[in-house]
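[agent] plan:
  1. take the single chain provided in the ticket
  2. run structure prediction with default settings
  3. attach structure tokens to the ticket
  4. add a short note for the reviewer (M.T.)
[agent] executing step 1
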Amino acid sequence: MGIFSRIFGAGGGEQPAPERDEQAAAPDGGYDVADVYRGLREQVLGLAGDPSFQADGPIALLMETGYPGAVVSLVAIADGTTSLYFSNGGGVIGAGTHDAVRAASARLLEAAAASAEQMAPAAACPLPALGQVRFHLLAADGIRAAEAPEQDLGHNRHPLSPLFHLAHAVIAAIREHTPDGG
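[agent] step 2 finished; step 3 output follows
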């Protein structure tokens, strides 16, 4: 089973997605958002401007993609921490312990630094709309963000397409190095 199939609770894995409550209000862009996801996401976004976190370049990159029912968030942090979170509560945490994942994440952060001028300062960090990809680049001076249609990024019709493809190389490395192959 593919890693994204876990968005809907299918397949085994590290943290299976909880059942969805179709009657519950979806406060974040129409998605069900688990408390654990919200907490992890806030921790990552809180790294921006944190004087205790030292990095020569970006502190982290958060790439979020809106799918039916959930957002998939790839997190790459300068200390090598790499995770994949699903807004409905599933995910893979701590994938950066694998050398291949750590190396792919380092390449992603290097490219993110070179792409910073293509992102605007962000006062808020909303989840992306369905079919959209939102990049959040965290640095000592705050957060920069950009959003584009997933199709445009995937088909190299956007200036941030190279960053999108490097992020997917990180996801592929995570899939390859997780116990069940993602």
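[agent] step 4 note for reviewer: Residues 3-177 form one domain.
[agent] ticket updated
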